[in-house]
């Protein structure tokens, strides 16, 4: 019986890999990392920030006020509508403190928050109704509106030197996670109470139509901070985001996304910095992340719902970013059922006693999917807490969809304090990790050099761990 199950799982893995590979052609199929990096200029040429007409729509012209007490929800709505109707431009938020509910962007609108301006979002969940079409931890549903949201729009931007403050803390939004450390008190409701979170996942497994997956009041699924959904040509530049309910920058099913010179500081539960989901052609450049969860996490849907859409994240470029606190600097997964491929991370710095890992790939046999062509180079790591690099197929729940991890290269990396383990690779016997390479890597002050379980071809070239050369 056990051998028969293993054969079934292996067959499913082959089918999944074949289907994924046939969807679109990968730009970096070459096993050689140097040749794959040669594809980067072509990918970058496809990523172009949108441009906007030189017309300004100050929010003050629509009844907006930065006095710190006026509700500016309608002023934002009216200014964005006028800008969109006129053909586009900038909705300008001058210096001041602006209270608001959700902001919904429309095509050809650049929301420009000037230096000295702070946009503060309501902490009343009822202000984020009616429900909108969203994705929550990799599953589509109808939920509270994200704080800044756009659905099927083109040419949108969030720019400036101002601040977006979600005002989330231990008194609002964060307690919904159900952790005492985040403000939850025993006896009060949360997302796991009476399986509220699990109800969404069960609906997805049963293929309940998304329109019938109505959550919001009574379910305690926190909204994201910024979520453009099925959008094209997106720019987020210069601004700062603080105090989010959960995931902060979360483009979903988007193409041509530029996120640059952005600061993200938020330490609540599931406070990922930037989570591109099932997106193509994404540039994340010169950003700073100090977060309560993963700094950058690349995703593509959870379990049955991810397989239903079957759209990978691909052509993701990360350049010149700085990572402080977080569960990982560059992370892939765990909502990864649609696959991830062609990820390039270079010239980044990572350093914090509260940064768990530099590169993390996390999936499981419940997720399935193919993770391939992940390239990292020129990374300076001061300190990590757990592992420098980990690729695991044993994250969270198990199922019948064997994942695939292959063609991973880490080169020109220096780590001063490597944490508990330098490199962890763990996979299923039926689907070993293939073609993992480390080249010109120095890892110091690590307790255990490496741990491998079920790996295929592994190459260490000019790798030094704790002062000793490691050749594999």
Essential attributes:
Pectate Lyase C-like, mainly beta, 14% helix, 33 strands, 6 helices, globular, 472 residues, 22-stranded mixed beta sheet, single chain, 6-stranded parallel beta sheet
User: Helix count, per DSSP?
Assistant: 6
CATH topology (level 3) name of the largest domain = Pectate Lyase C-like
Q: Please give the domain count.
A: 2
CATH structural architecture of the largest domain = 3 Solenoid
Radius of gyration: 22 Å
In short:
The protein is mainly beta and 472 residues long. Helices cover 14% and strands 40% of the residues. Residues 1-25 have low confidence and may be disordered.
Describe what you observe in this structure.
The chain has 472 residues and is mostly beta strands. It has two domains: 231 residues, Single-stranded right-handed beta-helix, Pectin lyase-like (Pectate Lyase C-like); 178 residues, Single-stranded right-handed beta-helix, Pectin lyase-like (Pectate Lyase C-like, 3 Solenoid). Helices cover 14% and strands 40% of the residues. The strands form four sheets. It has a 22-stranded mixed beta sheet that branches. The protein has a six-stranded parallel beta sheet with strand order 20-23-25-27-29-31, with no helix packed on it. The protein has a three-stranded parallel beta sheet with strand order 5-10-13. It is globular. The two termini are 36 Å apart.
């Amino acid at each position: 019986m056990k051998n028969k199950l293993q054969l079934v799982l292996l067959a499913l893995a082959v089918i999944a890999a074949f289907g994924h590979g046939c969807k679109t052609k990968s730009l970096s199929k070459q096993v050689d990392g140097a040749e794959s990096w040669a594809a980067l200029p072509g990918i970058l040429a496809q990523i172009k920030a949108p441009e906007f007409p030189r017309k300004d729509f100050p929010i003050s012209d629509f009844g907006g006020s930065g006095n710190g007490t006026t509700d500016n929800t309608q002023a934002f709505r009216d200014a964005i509508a006028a800008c969109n109707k006129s053909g586009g431009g900038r909705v300008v938020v001058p210096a001041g403190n602006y209270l608001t509910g959700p902001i919904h962007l429309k095509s050809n609108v650049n929301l420009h928050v000037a230096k000295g301006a702070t946009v503060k979002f309501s902490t009343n969940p009822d202000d984020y109704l009616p429900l909108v079409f969203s994705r929550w931890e990799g599953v589509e549903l109808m939920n509270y509106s994200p704080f800044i949201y756009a659905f099927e729009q083109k040419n949108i931007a969030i720019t400036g030197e101002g601040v977006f403050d979600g005002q989330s803390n231990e008194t609002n939004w964060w307690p919904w996670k159900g952790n005492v450390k985040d403000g939850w008190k025993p006896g009060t409701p949360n997302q796991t109470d009476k399986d509220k979170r699990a109800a969404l996942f069960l609906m997805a497994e049963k293929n309940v139509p998304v329109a019938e997956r109505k959550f919001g009041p009574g379910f305690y699924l926190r909204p994201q901070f910024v979520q453009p959904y099925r959008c094209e040509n997106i720019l987020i530049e210069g601004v700062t985001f603080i105090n989010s309910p959960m995931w902060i920058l979360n483009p979903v099913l988007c193409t041509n996304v530029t996120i640059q010179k952005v600061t993200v500081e938020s330490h609540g539960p599931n406070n990922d910095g930037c989570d591109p989901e099932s997106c193509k052609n994404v540039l994340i450049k010169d950003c700073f992340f100090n977060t309560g969860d993963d700094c950058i996490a690349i995703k593509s849907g959870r379990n049955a719902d991810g397989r239903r859409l079957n759209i990978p994240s691909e052509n993701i470029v990360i350049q010149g970013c700085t990572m402080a606190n977080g569960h990982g600097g560059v992370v892939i997964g765990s909502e990864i059922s649609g696959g991830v491929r062609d990820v390039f991370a270079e010239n980044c710095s990572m350093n914090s006693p509260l940064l768990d890992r530099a590169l993390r790939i996390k999936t499981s046999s419940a997720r399935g999917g193919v993770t391939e062509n992940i390239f990292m180079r020129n990374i300076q790591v001061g300190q990590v807490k757990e592992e420098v690099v980990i690729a695991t197929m044993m994250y969270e729940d198990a199922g019948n969809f064997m994942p695939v991890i292959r063609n991973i290269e880490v080169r020109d990396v220096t780590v001063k304090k490597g944490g508990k383990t330098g490199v962890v690779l763990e996979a299923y016997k039926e689907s070993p990790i293939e073609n993992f390479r480390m080249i010109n890597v120095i890892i110091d002050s690590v307790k255990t050099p490496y741990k491998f379980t079920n790996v295929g071809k592994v190459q260490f070239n000019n790798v030094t761990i704790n002062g000793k050369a490691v050749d594999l």
